[in-house]
Amino acid sequence: MSSVLEMMISDDPVGVFVRYFFTCWAVHGVVSLVSSLIVPSYYNPTVSFEKRISWDYTVSSVIYCVPITTFYLLAVLEFHGSVEDRWTGVSFFTVHGIALHAASSLYESVNYVLTGKEWLFYAHHVVTLGCCVSMLFTERGQFWCSVLGLVEATNIPLGMITVLGSTPKLRNSLVYVLNGILLWLLYLLLRLPIPVAMYFLARDLWTQGPESGGPAWVFEDATMQTCWVVFLFTSGSFLWLLSMFWLKKITAGVVKGHKSAGILPK
Fold first, then answer.
1. Which residues, other chains included, contact 55 with Cβ-Cβ below 8 Å and sequence gap of 6+?
2. Eight-state DSSP code of residue 167
3. Sign of the C-alpha dihedral, residues 123, 124, 129, 131?
4. Within a 10 A sphere around the Cβ of 201, how many other Cβ atoms?
5. What's the rounded Cα separation, in Å, for the pair 188 and 89?
């Protein structure tokens, strides 16, 4: 028991990860309590347990994605310079950004079990966890994890749309429409260009890898490094294609909304 407590209060990556995992559940509990007090339909008999859980983790995701995005942005600004910085740079911003991202992915996965989500949601989070944890615990390549992790900013307007859309009076409000537009813009700015970021990451690996004596590696063991590279680019491709599938749906929703508002011809 004492060793577990020591790990939880330590400042090493594992301790930070564990603390953030429990913090996500604490936020979940506060959201549930506040919602029960100010949202009349929260305990409506027609609202299932699964829908309440979905509401709680969706609102929670809006809250914790703000610091994740902030940490990642500051980390990118901190280590964007040299190849050495990109692969060996470690700071408060990288550790806390990646740890919170990984912990929130694990937290959401537990909620997916509770709400019976489809396998695609689990697959998304498994590969996200694998990528984050590999760079968090080895303390290598954290700049690149931060660059790719900036896409979490899209979850802020996405969560707002989900919350507002569940309230009939707010479904067609200006705030709802603005969040829809913001979601679309962030997908274009952060998720669509991911292949460009992956290209520069691959260039680092190719030109500055251990074979050339460079710092572009995560695992010293050659076999482990090869497996990591394959996993990273396979999972990255999967996540990007999934994002493009959702971008298509989001674009269709934005166009439909503009047509309904008379901004675009029907």
1. 31, 35, 42, 163, 166
2. S
3. positive
4. 22
5. 28
Query: Tokens 């027609």, residue?
Result: 46
Cβ contacts of 142 within 8 Å, gap of 6 or more: 75, 79, 89, 90, 94, 95, 98, 135, 136
* CB count in 10 Å sphere of residue 220: 10
User: What is the three-state SS of 62-109?
Assistant: HHHHHHHHHHHHHHHHHHCCCHHHHHHCCCHHHHHHHHHHHHHHHHHH
DSSP secondary-structure letter at 193?
Answer: T
pTM given for the model: 0.92
pLDDT digits (tens, 9 = 90+) for 128-183: 999 999 999 999 999 999 999 999 999 999 999 988 888 777 777 888 889 999 99
| Residue 57: closest CA among 131, 133, 158 | 158
Both tokens assigned to 80? 């964007």
Between the CA of residue 232 and those of 47, 87, 113, 144, what are the distances in Å? 40, 15, 25, 11
Amino acid, res. 196: V
Q: What is the Cα 150 distance to its own chain's centre?
A: 8
Q: Which of 51, 259, 254, 262 is nearest to 157 (CA)?
A: 254
The H-assigned helical ranges of 116-190 are 119-138, 142-149, 155-165, 174-186
d(CA 141, CA 129): 15
Predicted pLDDT at 5:
47
**Nearest-angstrom CA–CA distance, 238 and 246:** 13
Alpha-carbon distances, residue 169 vs 47, 107, 156, 224 (angstroms): 18, 30, 20, 53
Residues sharing a CB contact under 8 Å with residue 165, sequence separation 6 or more, in sequence order: 171, 176
* pLDDT < 70 regions, the chain: 1-10, 257-266
Report DSSP state, residue 187. Answer: I
